[in-house]
Design a protein that fits this description.
alpha+beta, 3-stranded antiparallel sheet, 3 strands
Amino acid sequence: MNNKQIKTYIDIFSNPIKSDITWSDIETLFMALGAKISEGNGSRIRVELNGERAVFHRPHPEKNTDKGAIVSVRKFLSNAGVKI
């Protein structure tokens, strides 16, 4: 993982929840961690990492991820056993 991906991970787990994390940075983090990403219907993507599966919605038309989605990403990464 590069420094930007590490920063994205730190931002995801920071408190209070940040509202300026772009979805593309989150997807890049997933790929760096070795996740399998597949396209779903519409703006949905399916992510599998370490046996944990989740479905997320890409934000549109804005690029920043809302706080509720950040909480879901946190839970997904924690359940997948990701620690940096």
